[in-house]
Structure formats: C-alpha cells, structure tokens
Specification:
disordered N terminus; binds 2-oxoglutaric acid; 14 strands; 345 residues; 4-stranded antiparallel sheet; 8-stranded mixed sheet; alpha+beta
C-alpha cells in the first residue's frame, strides 16, 4: 500500500476531547438541567464517553486533546531525552538497564527487543530509556528505584513532570472508559491509586543508520500488541502504523495530541463485563530521520482485583474464572515473564 493511501485512512482513528473527563465535577452538572452551561458540559462528557466507546470497540486507538499535558512540559521532556540519547554509548551504558532489578534504565539497540510480545524474524532498530513508579504503600514488586544521571538532574527534572501529567490524563481516560462500558465511573480509578506505570522513552534510528549487513529484518518496532491496560504516546514524527480493517494505517503525530491505545489486559478484563475492547496490533517503521517517542504504560495497582461486580458482569459472554489471575500485577508479571519478581516481595 502506498504512503498516500495510509494517510487517507488516518481519519479512522478518532479524536476525543478529555476536558469534560478531567473535570470531576462535570457528572453532577446534570442536577441543574435549566443551566445552559451545565447541560453543555454534560453533553461534552457524554460525547467523549461515546467516542471512547466507539474507538475502543473498533480501532482500539484514539487521539486525545485537551488532555492537561502542557506543550512546555512535553517539549522539555522531548528535549531532555534527545540530549540523553545524543551522548556516546559508553555514557548511556552507565545507566544500563541490566544494573536494575526492574530493568529500568538504558537499553541499547544491541540489547534486542524491548517489548513483551516477541516478533520472530525482526530486530528492533531502537534504543530506550525506562523509568517507573517508585513510591508505594502496599506490597508491589513492580515499584522501585529508577536510574538517573548522577552529575545533574536535568533529565529527571524534565521527565518526571511529564510522566506525572500523563498519568493524570490516563486517569481521565480510565474514567471515560469505565463509563463507556457501563461500569461505575470510578471502577478503574479506584484501581489506579498506586499504578504500576512505566515510561519508556525511545529513539528509533534513521534508515541510513540501520545495520544492513545481516540476515535480520529490521523494523523500528516489530508488530505487537501491548500487554498492559492503557498506553499513552507522544511522538515527534511519523512512524507508527496500526493494523485495522485488515490493513496497516499510519497514526501520525498530531501537535498538541496524545495517542491512546488499549493493551491486552484491557481486552481480557472487559470480557468479564461482556464487552470486547480491542487491543490492536501496531508497529513502528524507521524513516529518513531519527524518531523519538514518549510512551507511558498505565497499569493498575499491583494488588488491584480484576473482578467485575456481579451486577455489571453480563452473562451473554462466558465469564473468565475470577481466580485466573490473583491481581492485575500478577497478570502483568505473567505476561512479562517476570513471575520470579513476586517471589522476592
Ligand atoms: O514508539 C512508538 O510509537 C510505539 C512504541 C510501542 O509500540 C511500544 O513501545 O510498545
């Protein structure tokens, strides 16, 4: 398929304004039906929820705008990570992910694939820097220390505000998602108090940098689905393709927007509520310039139960046994092949 045809189909990935979902008061506005502004806020809320539902049952991807992450915070994060990746490899290796029990830190191109679904026959032409959540009060083997440069806190002070702002947007998406599948509004929010969130910053090589002297096929990131709950992506240029309607459709960067997609956990979980949310295959192809992206994987609290209250669990679909995964964290550990981490907790 030509690049032009790919672009023609971008419109299949809808855009949702998060403004009504970020505002926790908007649900109560219905009370005063005579107020014009109240009913327009309520309309905005239900419009957002309906769009999320449609996107999640069809493409599994949607753009969000009015998401609360400022341009300045996003730009600072991009600037800082570009500067980090521009350093010599030996410098970046000082923060090598293999030094961290949670594999947080720097992964070089030579380190292989960095996503949980392996794609045979492809090698990923990308390097990454990974951080995750540190603080938590309960028991979670997936919270812990990050690695940051010791000499200055430039990187940390640019990345942490972005990670925090995106987690806030993710909560608004989770609120809309619960409403979209007829669960109580706070159903997911109550399970995102100490989320197992991770931020992966990526640099994809330009095509001319990609090794060609091997049998391997190289892609920026081979076709895969995400294994977690929600993914929120910012990208500085085009390169992401989404497999929908039997074709690869390009999902370009749009100024001021983030791109959201659902992972396998969301699809698995929703089946218990008799809905089939889509976790969609996607990939990254390398282009003529290096590409950078900031990916936030938002997953529930480690001990969050994935049970759906009986009154919301439809019976038209065969329900999964509630004992299949002890918690959302165990789902992730098993998908990531990290069950040993739990033995240490
Ligand atoms: O960088 C991107 O655009 C997508 C990254 C991705 O799909 C992943 O890390 O799972």
């Amino acid at each position: 398929m030509s690049g032009h045809a790919l672009l023609d189909r971008v419109s299949e990935i809808p855009t949702v304004s998060l403004s009504a979902l970020l505002d926790p008061g908007s649900l109560e506005m219905d009370v005063d039906a005579s107020s014009e502004s109240s009913s327009s806020s309520t309309n905005l809320l239900y419009e957002a929820v309906a769009s999320i539902r449609h996107a999640c049952l069809t493409v599994g991807f949607f753009y969000i705008k009015d998401h609360g992450v400022s341009d300045a915070v996003m730009q600072n994060a991009f600037d800082a990570i570009k500067k980090f990746f521009a350093q010599p490899t030996e410098e970046k290796r000082r923060l090598d992910a293999t030094q961290s029990p949670l594999y947080r830190g720097y992964n070089a191109i030579e380190d292989g694939k960095h996503n949980c679904k392996r794609t045979e026959g492809y090698r990923d032409a990308k390097e990454s820097f990974v951080i995750g959540m540190t603080e938590q009060h309960g028991s979670s083997p997936m919270h812990g220390a990050n690695q940051w440069p010791e000499e200055n806190d430039e990187l940390k002070s640019a990345i942490e505000p972005y990670f925090e702002a995106v987690r806030k947007s993710a909560r608004a998406v989770a609120r809309g998602l619960a409403m979209a599948i007829d669960l109580p509004e706070n159903y997911f929010l109550e399970r995102l108090r100490e989320p197992v969130a991770q931020m992966v910053m990526l640099r994809y090589q330009a095509l001319h940098e990609v090794a060609t002297n091997s049998e391997d096929k190289w892609l920026g990131c081979g076709p895969h689905t995400d294994c977690g709950f929600l993914t929120l992506l910012a990208q500085d240029s085009q390169g992401l393709d989404v497999f929908t309607g039997g074709e690869w459709v390009c999902a370009p960067s749009k100024p001021g927007h983030l791109l959201v997609n659902l992972g396998d956990m969301a699809a698995y979980w929703s089946e218990k509520a008799s809905v089939k949310l889509k976790s969609t295959l996607h990939r990254v192809t390398n282009g003529s310039h290096a590409r950078h992206s900031l990916v936030v994987f938002m997953n529930p609290d480690f001990e969050a139960s994935m049970d759906i209250p009986d009154e919301h669990a439809g019976d038209s679909v065969e329900r999964k046994s509630s004992g299949e995964y002890r918690s959302a964290g165990h789902y992730l550990l098993s998908r990531l092949g990290l069950m040993w981490l739990d033995d240490k907790s």
